[in-house]
Amino acid sequence: MTIVEACRLTRVFPMSAGPVVAVRDASLRVDRGDYIAIGGPSGCGKSTLLHLLGCVDAPTSGNVMFEGRDVGTLTDSGRGRIRLTRIGFVFQRFFLLPMLTAWENVELPQSEAGASRAERRERTRELLEYVELSDRAHHLPSQLSGGEMQRVAVARALANRPALLLADEPTGELDEETGERIAALLDRVHADGTAIVLVTHNAALANRAKTRLSMRSGVLHT
Amino acid sequence: MTPLALAWRTARRYRARAVLAVIGVAVIGALNFDMLMLSRGLVLSFADLLNATNYNIRISGNSGLPLSRSPIDNAGTLMKQVAALPQIASVAVMRTASAALVEPSRRPQGVELVGSSDPSGLGVWRLLRGSNLDTASDGTAAQTAVVSQTLAERFSLAPGSTIHVRAGISGTMSALPPISLRIVGVGDFPFEPEESLVVATSMAGFARAHGGVVDDRAEFMFAASRPNVGVDAAVDAIDKLRPDIRAFSNEQLVANFARNAFTYFRQISVVLSTTTAVFSFLLVTTLLTVSVNQRLGEVAALRALGIRRRHIAATLLWEAVLLVGIGGTLALPLGQLLASILDGILRRMPGLPAGLHFFAFEPQSLVLHVLVLSATAIVAAAYPTWLAVRLPIAQTLRQEVVS
Fold first, then answer.
1. What is the largest CA-CA distance in chain B?
2. ipTM of this predicted structure
3. Residues of B with CB below 8 A from A93's CB?
4. Contact indicator for B59, B222 with CB cutoff of 8 Å
5. Cα–Cα distance for residue pair B280/B372, rounded to 1 Å
6. Residues from chain A contacting residue B298 (CB–CB below 8 Å)
7. B350: nearest Cα among B195, B193, B197
8. Which residues pair with residue B90 across a beta bridge?
9. Which of A147, B67, B80, B351 has its CA 20 to 30 Å from the CA of residue B87?
């Protein structure tokens, strides 16, 4: 079953020095069970493509179908709803809310999605166990290591049981050993049924994916 | 997690910024609160002074301002005429003259001599200790007197003491013999300047101090309307008695003064309270904007995770409300303290009635204070909220990584 299908996506950023084509005529389909890694040099358009797939940016041309719905026809709140309930994001810089504990960071998207208190409690406990951070549940991000923060971010991304997990350089800020642990966690997420698309420079991480793609100057190569 | 809870946690997380904002708003809010109390303080205080008497109508000569002590001629006749009006319950007169306290082995001390037809003092004094004037006094016995607190302290006087007062004669040395007055009470004279040396006695005592020869004039005449008659009808009836007098209800006097004499303070307070509100707005807007700019990545990530704009906007609004709310609440005791200090300074102006205050609290000031600060919080949150909810998610995330 297809989760997201991007068809001939082009994204042009207007700049004062002239327009920059970040993504050029890219097509990609992500099905349930997929694990796709996109590699390529910095500035080649990997993250832009990820943002287009994740409904946080709109293409200049082409279209994105998410679970059969044309994202371009959806309202802002419609796209927000997809991001909240069907997509999980993991960022290079974690972006956990520093004033909330690990538990509260994982609980936040569930609360926004309208889950009951009991459901939230159960799901958060389960996710923190899943990422092996039950003992750090009530620690603030400032009290966690980089790897622990990224594991909390993965737990947060999985909070509303998304169909698709998008990860933008998830090991970019971590050392090799910690990165390996995050990679293993992503393997487990995939094995448990969540499709993953990640962009990375890390060849070892990319090699764990079932499908490896690369980008050069905005063009996606299979 | 509710936007309020998130805002509270944000304020606690960025404690230094929050404390700075709260202190800033408290100081600015205190000034704003003071300006609101100043805008109507004199009027309220003046109204309190007038209403503290048992009379709700003032009668004065037609020339001059209502309280300029323009004397009323043929006061005795007028008093009888006013008392005979069906709208009037009671009437009283007050006379004032300069006098000297002459005590053996002390230099004569200038005092203000007040004669009152009302033994309880028409509200011109408020008894601190002792009793009011003796209603049974006649011309032969020693007249009774109520003296001001300052006079009592300076001359070590208390109820039971006797003083000797010589009435003055304008423009010449007085050769009148002093009269003895037995002090029965010590009081505050709120219409007189602070530290005034005042001796109040009955009209008989006042006449006796003038050698029994006193013209038929009065500096002030007071009347009280009957409870079942409107004060305006009573004022109209008095006005019609004679063309050379004017009657004013307390409300009319307060309204006249609010319109004429106190406009200055109102204008100053409007300008200053507007300025303080603008400062408050700038402070909170700046701090929130800086805060949002520091957290753009977080906000963009939240939006990418599907957190609604409404939720983010509500969080920022609550943050502004919390900062301004806590600061604004602290502003109340701080403003009250500041007002009492400023009031003390301003009331040192010479000739100011002791009972008059520049700053007066009324519920309306509190309501206005809350409204001004609420509006400030909302307006201050508007720009940072707009920044946060309109930010382009993808571009912001990209910039955060690049930076």
1. 103
2. 0.89
3. 297, 400-401
4. yes
5. 10
6. 95, 97-98
7. B193
8. B224
9. B67
B306 at the A interface (CB within 8 A)? yes
Give the tens place of pLDDT for each residue, A24-75: 999 999 999 999 999 988 888 999 999 999 999 999 999 999 999 999 999 9
Is A100 an 8 Å CB contact of chain B? yes
A43 touches chain B (CB under 8 A): no
The one-letter amino acid at B205: G
Distance from B290 to chain A by nearest Cα, in Å?
Answer: 17
A168: chain B residues, CB-CB within 8 Å: 397, 401
**Helix, strand, coil fractions of chain A, as percent rounded to 5:** 40, 25, 35
Flag whether residue A101 sits within 8 Å of chain B, measured between CB atoms.
no
Chain B from 281 to 300: CB within 8 A of any A CB: 297-298, 300
Q: Which residues of B246-271 are buried (b: 16+ CB within 10 A; e: fewer)?
A: bbbbbebbbeebbeeebeebbeebee
Residue B341 neighbours by CB under 8 Å, 6+ apart: none
Can you tell me the mean pLDDT for B164-179? 74
The pair of structure tokens assigned to B130 is: 């002792």
Can you tell me the distance from the alpha carbon of A73 to that of A64, in angstroms, rounded to the nearest whole number?
10
Task: Please give the Cα distance from B277 to B374 (Å, whole number).
Answer: 10
Triad B44, B49, B51: Cα angle to 5°: 90
More confident residue, B105 or A149: A149
**Tally of CA atoms within 13 A in the half-sphere of A29 that contains its CB:** 6
Nearest CB among B1, B306, B395 relative to A80 is that of: B306
Name the packing angle between helices B393-402 and A46-53 (round to 10°).
150
* DSSP for B227-257, written as a single string: TTS-HHHHHHHHHTT-TTEEEEEHHHHHHHH
A37 backbone dihedrals φ, ψ, rounded to 5°: -115, 135
Residue of A nearest to B2 (CA): A111
Distance from CA of A170 to the nearest CA of B (A): 12
For residue B193 the two structure tokens come to 């300047």
Is the Cβ of A51 closer than 8 Å to some Cβ of chain B? Answer: yes
A111 touches chain B (CB under 8 A): yes
- Return the higher-pLDDT residue of A100 and B171: A100
DSSP result, A72-101: GGS-HHHHHHHHHHTEEEE-TT----TTS-
Determine the residue type at A118: A
A138 touches chain B (CB under 8 A): no
**What residue type is B183 in one-letter code?**
I
Q: Please list, in sequence order, all residues whose beta carbon lies within 8 angstroms of the beta carbon of residue A102, skipping any fewer than 6 positions away.
A: A96, A128, A133, A136, A137, A138, A139, A140, A141, A144, A148, A152, A155
CA atoms within 13 A on the CB side of A210: 13
